[in-house]
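Lab notebook, design round three. We kept the backbone fixed and only want residue identities now. Task for the bench partner: fill in a sequence for the structure below.
Input structure tokens:
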């Protein structure tokens, strides 16, 4: 497929709109502009919010069977055009074409699960007679749409992470306004295309592109926005939370995920899993492997295999099926990772594989002997770098894993059920993957973290619950 620059409209309350001011969407691999996209102002976004609110109040209700049908049709629409969606994901972002195809498959699944869960979102009866004197009272609670959900999404999963916010919001009957990452807005707009073609009522979705610094505060402060669902950096999350006040928040803010490898583990399997989990999507993955703690008896073997397997990865043109790792999202981000690696090396770290940058490409890199003072030791690298450290016991590994401000996912490799459960009980994270790397997720599971990794949970059913208001109904019978 040839690269062509196109003028892309945004999706505003069911209408495709061009604006006078635009910005470029650039392929990070070669710096070529692939599209121009409207740059919305805060005033324009305010109009979208107010129009959405008006259309939502006028419609009053959207039948469950209609929501089910729209979401299921949108999944089919994307599946029928999977290669177009995958090409867009790969072209505007960092993913290889193989990784992009996998993301399209996941997005289809996310929408289908949203469709299925729409029929299961219900309340329960309440035994009011548990209180003496209430024997003649009967009732229940139900879950109702809360109003407009603002979805602010990152560049690293530009289709499926948008689907993870839009699908649940629509499944419970909420309108949703998406502010996608400026680096990768085209995939979100393709999702809007699928939903429009599937019969989505006007006013239930808008995808507004522009500066996060200008649009984010509008979404955070406008009284008609009832919830903010944000995936991004911790600093931006803190700023949004301060502006949002009493709004409901769901935030996934990243991590620097640990994996513990014990002496009874299958080391060949563990290294393969950690290499894949550390370097997929050029390491730009919130649950990607960053810190690996290996018990002393298997440390040398693990380090050797990890370096060997890393060196076999093919870095290059992301649109080729043979490529394992494409560019990072920008040369600037690759330069940041390069600086962090250089800082660690200056402090005594050794590079066993990779470590070099060319433009937006950064080689998959394995580091050992990284000093705790190094930035890369305790912050999220969000790039293709893993750190391997020797430990003397599971307890030491857990303590080191917990000794950061993040807690999204962790992994542990062991043949012992007792040691696995020790890790499950003591690791301060939102998810523990046993005999797998931290980089594992299915779209139906609850997903989120503790500490600086965020608040709330995604995963379709769990996001739907976050996006509803609970109303209790009680009848006093005579």
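Proposed sequence:
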């Amino acid at each position: 497929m040839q690269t062509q620059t196109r003028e892309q409209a945004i999706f505003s309350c069911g209408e495709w709109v061009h604006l006078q001011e635009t910005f470029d969407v650039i392929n990070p691999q070669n710096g070529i502009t692939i599209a121009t996209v409207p740059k919305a102002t805060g005033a324009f976004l305010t109009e979208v919010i107010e129009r959405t609110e008006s259309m939502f109040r006028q419609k009053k209700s959207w039948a469950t069977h209609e929501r089910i049908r729209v979401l299921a049709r949108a999944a089919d629409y994307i599946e029928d055009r999977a290669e177009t969606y995958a090409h867009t994901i790969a072209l505007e972002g960092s993913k290889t074409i193989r990784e992009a195809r996998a993301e399209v498959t996941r997005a289809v699944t996310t929408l289908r699960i949203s469709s299925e869960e729409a029929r299961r979102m219900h309340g329960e009866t309440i035994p009011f007679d548990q209180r003496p004197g209430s024997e003649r009272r009967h009732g229940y609670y139900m879950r109702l749409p809360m109003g407009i959900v603002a979805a602010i999404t990152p560049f690293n999963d530009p289709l499926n992470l948008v689907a993870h916010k839009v699908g649940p919001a629509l499944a419970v009957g909420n309108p949703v306004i998406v502010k996608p990452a400026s680096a990768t807005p085209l995939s979100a707009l393709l999702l809007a295309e699928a939903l429009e073609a599937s019969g989505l009522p006007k006013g239930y979705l808008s995808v507004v592109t522009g500066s996060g610094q200008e649009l984010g505060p509008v979404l955070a402060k406008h009284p008609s926005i009832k919830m903010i669902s944000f995936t991004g950096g911790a600093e931006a999350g803190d700023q949004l939370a301060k502006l949002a006040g009493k709004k409901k928040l769901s935030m996934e803010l990243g991590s620097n995920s640990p994996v513990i490898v014990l002496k009874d583990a299958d080391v060949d399997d563990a290294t393969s899993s950690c290499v894949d989990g550390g370097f997929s999507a050029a390491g730009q993955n919130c649950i990607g492997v960053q810190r690996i703690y290996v018990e002393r008896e298997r440390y040398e073997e693990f380090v050797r295999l990890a370096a060997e397997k890393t060196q076999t990865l093919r870095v290059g043109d992301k649109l080729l099926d043979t490529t394992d790792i494409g560019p990072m999202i920008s040369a600037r981000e690759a330069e940041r990772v390069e600086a962090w690696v250089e800082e660690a090396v200056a402090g005594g770290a050794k590079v066993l594989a990779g470590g070099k940058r060319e433009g937006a490409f950064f080689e998959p890199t394995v580091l050992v002997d990284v000093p705790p003072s190094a930035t890369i030791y305790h912050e999220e690298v969000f790039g293709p770098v893993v750190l391997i450290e020797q430990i003397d016991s599971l307890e030491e590994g857990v303590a080191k894993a917990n000794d950061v401000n993040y807690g999204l996912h962790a992994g542990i490799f062991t043949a012992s059920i007792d040691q696995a459960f020790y890790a499950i009980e003591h690791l301060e994270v939102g998810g523990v993957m046993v005999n797998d790397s931290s980089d594992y997720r299915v779209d139906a599971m609850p997903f989120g973290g503790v500490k600086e990794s965020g608040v709330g949970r995604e995963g379709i059913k769990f996001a739907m619950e976050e996006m509803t208001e609970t109303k209790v109904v009680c009848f006093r019978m005579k």
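Keep this in mind before ordering anything: The mean pLDDT is 96.
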